[in-house]
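Feature request, filed as a ticket because there's no other form

It would be nice if the structure record came with a short human-readable summary line next to the tokens. Right now we just get the raw output. Example of a typical job, pasted below so the devs can see what we mean:
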Amino acid sequence: MTTATFIGLGVMGYPMAGHLAEAGITVRVWNRSTDKSVQWARDYPGTACQTIEEAVKDADFVMTCVGADKDLITVYEGESGILAHAKHGAVLVDHTTASAGVAERLAAAAGRVGMGFIDAPVSGGQQGAQKGQLTIMCGGSDEDYSKAQPLLQHYARALNLMGPAGSGQKTKMVNQIAIAGLVQGL
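Raw output as currently delivered:
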């Protein structure tokens, strides 16, 4: 059975992790505020974890959806981070809208410890997350994308591999610029 960890239970991550659990995937969650993890485990079949180490231990996939670059570095790097505790061969999927540079940095670090990495920012807002209708722009290897695709489809309406690590973030940036330009034009 596939085990997935979801780190970051904000307005997007909470329902995204829920879609995985409702699909029958074994899901563990961790959030900076423990109350949110505990509430998620009341709402969905899954386990609230007290530490990142506990959450990622032996997980096949680790999904993250946190605030920004600095939050990603905090949850991925260091003695208590994902890279120090996830199993060899795990695929790490980051849904945070962050910089392409951080995505490239984390992909390289994951590769050095035998893990895959996909930067996979999402578009569709809270309603898209709740309905499982997000657009996901991915950057990473074909192999890691192929492994993660069946899980990501549980909350995606559109899912595409755009190129190597960092490409998902670059595509999301272009998307945001185009939307901002359209709004300004209107």
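Something like this underneath would help us a lot:
The mean pLDDT is 97.
The two ends are 49 Å apart (CA to CA).
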